[in-house]
Design brief:
Cytidine Deaminase, domain 2; 3 domains
Length: 509
Amino acid sequence: MDQWAILSVSDKTGLSELAQGFLSQGIKLLASGGTYRFLRNQGIEVSALEDLTGFTEILGGRVKTLHPKIYAGILSRETPEDAKDRESIGSPAIVAVVVNLYPFETRWQEGAGKEQLVEEIDIGGVSLIRAAAKNYMRTLVLVDPRQYHEALQLPLAEMSPSDRLKRAQEAFSHVAYYDTMIANCLNQWTDPPLKPVAQELFTLSGHRWGELRYGENPHQVAAFYATPGQTGFQNATVHQGKALSYNNLADADTAWRLASSLPAPNAVAVKHQTPSGVGMGSTLEEAYLKAYEADPVSIFGGIVAVKGTVDEKLAQHLTSIFLEVVIAQDYTQEALSILAAKKNLRVLAMPFQLPSYAEEVRTVSGGFLVQQRDVVTLPFENLKHAGGPEADLSRWKTDLTLAWTTVGFVKSNAIVVVKDTMTVGIGGGHTNRIDAARQALEQAKEQARGAVLASDAYFPFGDVMTEAAKYHIGLVIEPGGSIRDKESIEVANLHEIPLYFTGERHFRH
């Protein structure tokens, strides 16, 4: 009985070697359009699919492989009944299907328009893959040139059931990724796009950008999966350094998002996914020095993001201490030469522009949680004067913006103290708010006098305001909304501390 392989690929990498490998096993070749022409030009013996089906492709190529003779050959089981049905319509025994799909993702990333992208939605290829994967015990399915070498290590007849099953699983994952990518793209075309939490079904897909050095701990394996159609660390230019770890990327994301949320120039130092120091200034160097001076101990071994271009002077500061990762919009050649002295330092360049919408996904036992990613802004027109004397907020605008934006990136419960465009005290990750306040104020010490204090959520009691008064805080900003707001207002009035409510909290767990 003749055995056949169907080849229909957009990526011709390794195709000639695979085809020759099949022929050496006595497996004949059937190929569609461009694949057929490619193999013929390589001098490889191959038949066109139309020779089997009896018709050429139609609708400009939209229909070319959808035919009973093809699918009977793929889906036929090794039973007399299936063999009889297959032979009755002249369908051959197809023992291998090699398909890689239209390059929808590549065209999407290139900015192709809707009409062009619609034509890049593969129909026949997906159907061929699903059919072969369903019948994996008899029909080998390959969807990626990286699979070819391993597939040729043994004759197909000797391939183990576990290897065949592995290929089927990879095939269904490949199709699931492809379909999810298209669904996400089409969702972006809607006006407005459907939010994940509004959809009955939520699918998550990603392409492995690379293995990470390890997870949160060295004994945990980890990888970064890039989401199709979105920009982020997969688009960063990596100038130098060791491979990134799970913790590196998690910390880098916090630093990059906070720096992106603030006006330039600014600098953010992060340790364990919470800011240790944030600074703003007239120059990027000034901003960095403030972020460093805010906590010169915690920045050691941390992540630094700077919103601007790193020059020679700033590069010298960055190499004077041990850092894991530096992220900037760009670097001068002189700066890169200086940073190169720290060969293990990861140096990344990427735009500092937050997406208009993004979701956060977190696994829990039995499933996962999805929410819209928090965007931290401070609309001054919505601030409500709650207690103490009214303040001229225009004088406080930069410090208020810095304090409120930063507190949204600190682990809850969170308190941030800011003075002269730099954080001077950060307290976060506490199980009660007064301990967070004491940590931030004790860190600030004398610099707390006349500073801004921001809280990510309301004060449940008057104790935080009382503590702030001990350090002579100049202005307090918090969401308000506690049933005990009156206690905080009374303390604000007693100590003449301007107290303003934002009406919005920013928990970060």
